[in-house]
């Protein structure tokens, strides 16, 4: 976002990140109202602070970014790169369960939820995952 714009909404996102619940922030609105710009700004902000675990920006113009089957594996890959202690757990999940050929619920459980729940020392800072344009 341009400096000085969308400050109220960005402030609401930052407050949500610091609160323990709910774990999901849903931003919705009409097409062309700046949701993607806000999502990019949020991802950039938390990436600069080492709190961006992953991001996925759907796009109807790019084949690999409009396929919902790519979301969980992409997020898991990015989480593994952001948190090296998770990378091995994700690799083990792939080896033991081969979730890449499973439905999205199974992928989510084996590639993201279980590896993150096993972490020995969870970070005191929240991890942010940004997913944009689910309707694409």
Automatic annotation (TrEMBL):
Signal peptide range in chain numbering: none
Keywords: Repeat
SUPFAM superfamilies: P-loop containing nucleoside triphosphate hydrolases
Keyword Methyltransferase: no
Keyword set includes Transmembrane helix: no
Coiled-coil zones: none
Protein name, entry field: NACHT domain-containing protein
